[in-house]
Design brief:
Shape: globular
Number of strands: 14
Mean pLDDT: 83
Largest sheet: 10 strands, mixed
Strand content: 15-25%
Radius of gyration: 22 Å
Low-confidence stretches: 64-98, 104-116
Helix content: 25-40%
Structural class: alpha+beta
Length: 398
C-alpha cells in the first residue's frame, strides 16, 4: 500500500492582481488592439481569480525599475552570435541545417526560444527545489530514506531533466530510481502519484518524493495576431510547485492512494489544449471547444467513476479535489448528475481565487488545503490534461 505522508506548495515571491493584469495588457509591450483589450477586460472582470503568483516581476512594465536589479531579467541571447554559430564550419548544424538556423535567426525565432527556455528553466529549478526542501522540513524526513524521485513539468525543455538535477541539489545518496514525467499538463500530479504508487507496490522503493512545477507566466503571448484562445492562458495561469511524499508506512491519519481511472474524450481533441512554438516563444492554446467536450465526456462516465472510485453515489460523502482550470471547468461539475455543489468544490474554488491555474502543481495545492482541514474519510482527485483526457484518483483516510 502507498500513503501520502505530506504535501508542500511553493510559489514565487511576485504576485499579480486582476487590476495589475489589466494594466499589464495595456502596456505598449503588448500589441493588442483596442477591440481585443475590451474583450480581455470583460473576461478579467468576470473571473473568480483575484490574482496569481508569478516568477516574473511584471511591475517592471509600468514602474521605472533598474533592470539589473529586477529578479526576472536575464541577458537575452545575441542573435548575431547564433547567426555566426550557424555558419561555423565546426558546428554540427552546418549544411542544410545551417540554412534552417539562418532563416530562423532572421525571424528571431531561435533567439526567442533560447531566451524563453533559459529563463523558464531557471525559475522551474528554483521553485522545484524550494518545494522539495519545504516538504522535507515539514515532514521531518531524512534524505537518506528517499529511494525514488518523480518530477513533472510542462514548461521549458531541460536536459538533464528535473528528475536528475533535483536529486543532485538535494544530495540524495540512496536513490534507486528516478522518473521525469513531463508534458502531461494539468493532470500531471495524478500521473506522478500513479507512478509513485506503482513504484511502492512493486517493492522498488519504500519512499517516493514527487515534485510538480510549472512557470507559465514566462510564456506570455503579446502578438495581436494571436486569437483569444491563445490569450486566455495569459489571464489564468500562474507559477508554482508542489511536492508530496509517498511512503509504504501505514500510520493513522495518512491517506492511502487507490488505483486511478482515466477518461479519454472522443473525436479529434488534440488541439483543445496544446503548446506550439511561435516567434515570441511558446504559444499555449485553450480551445473554446474544451469545456463542452469535457462536459460530454464527464456526463457519460460520471456514474461509473462514482461507483468504481468513491464507492458512493452521495457526493457529500467525498472530499472533491478538482483541478481549478477555470470558472467554466469547475461549473461543469455542478451540472453533472449527481452534481457537485460549490461546497463540494470549496477547496478548488479557494485555490483558483487566490492562485489561479498553476498547471501540474495546482492539484497539490488543493490537496494540501484539504489535508489541513479534512472532514471526510474519502477524497477524489480530478485533473484534465492535454489530449484531451481526464484523470481520477481516490484516496482513503487511514
Amino acid at each position: 500500500m502507498a500513503f501520502i505522508k505530506g504535501v508542500f506548495g511553493a510559489y514565487p515571491r511576485n504576485y499579480i492582481t486582476k487590476d495589475e493584469l489589466m494594466k499589464l495588457f495595456e502596456h505598449k509591450s503588448f500589441n493588442y488592439s483596442q477591440e481585443k483589450l475590451q474583450t480581455i477586460k470583460k473576461i478579467i472582470s468576470s473571473m473568480n481569480v483575484q490574482g496569481r503568483p508569478t516568477c516574473v516581476n511584471f511591475k517592471q512594465f509600468w514602474e521605472d525599475l533598474d533592470e539589473d536589479k529586477c529578479p526576472c531579467t536575464i541577458e537575452r541571447p545575441s542573435t548575431d552570435n547564433l547567426f555566426r554559430g550557424a555558419k561555423d564550419p565546426f558546428n554540427p548544424t552546418l549544411g542544410e541545417r545551417a540554412v534552417i538556423w539562418e532563416s530562423a535567426v532572421k525571424l528571431k525565432l531561435i533567439a526567442s526560444m533560447v531566451y524563453f527556455t533559459y529563463r523558464t528553466i531557471a525559475k522551474i529549478q528554483d521553485l522545484a527545489l524550494k518545494a522539495a526542501k519545504g516538504l522535507l522540513a515539514k515532514t521531518k524526513t531524512n534524505k537518506a530514506d528517499l529511494e525514488c524521485i518523480i518530477t513533472n513539468t510542462s514548461s521549458g525543455v531541460m536536459l538533464p531533466n528535473l528528475s536528475t538535477w533535483l536529486p543532485q541539489q538535494l544530495q540524495l545518496s540512496n536513490l534507486k530510481c528516478n522518473y521525469s514525467l513531463d508534458n502531461t499538463g494539468c493532470g500531471g500530479a495524478i500521473t506522478c502519484l500513479d507512478v509513485a504508487r506503482s513504484t511502492i507496490l512493486s517493492g522498488r522503493a519504500r519512499s517516493v518524493l514527487v515534485v510538480t512545477v510549472d512557470c507559465s507566466t514566462t510564456h506570455m503571448n503579446t502578438d495581436d495576431e494571436i486569437e483569444m484562445e491563445g490569450i486566455l492562458p495569459n489571464l489564468l495561469f500562474g507559477d508554482g510547485a508542489g511536492a508530496v511524499l509517498i511512503t509504504d508506512q501505514k500510520d493513522e491519519g495518512l491517506w492511502e492512494l487507490n488505483e486511478p481511472d482515466c477518461v479519454l474524450m472522443d473525436g479529434e481533441t488534440s488541439s483543445f489544449i496544446n503548446m506550439r512554438t511561435k516567434e515570441n516563444g511558446y504559444y499555449l492554446n485553450l480551445s473554446k471547444e474544451l469545456v463542452p467536450s469535457l462536459a460530454t465526456a464527464l456526463s457519460q462516465n460520471w456514474s461509473r467513476i462514482l461507483k468504481n472510485l468513491t464507492k458512493t453515489s452521495n457526493t457529500d460523502e467525498v472530499e472533491w479535489l478538482v483541478h481549478p482550470g477555470g470558472k467554466a471547468i469547475l461549473e461543469t461539475f455542478t451540472r453533472l448528475e449527481p452534481p457537485l455543489s460549490h461546497s463540494n468544490l470549496r477547496h478548488s474554488l479557494k485555490v483558483m481565487e487566490e492562485k489561479g491555474n498553476l498547471v501540474s502543481a495546482t492539484l497539490l495545492f488543493v490537496l494540501e488545503l484539504m489535508l489541513s482541514q479534512p472532514s471526510k474519510e474519502v477524497a477524489c482527485l480530478i485533473g484534465p490534461g492535454p489530449g484531451v483526457e481526464v484523470k481520477f484518483m481516490s484516496l482513503n483516510k487511514v
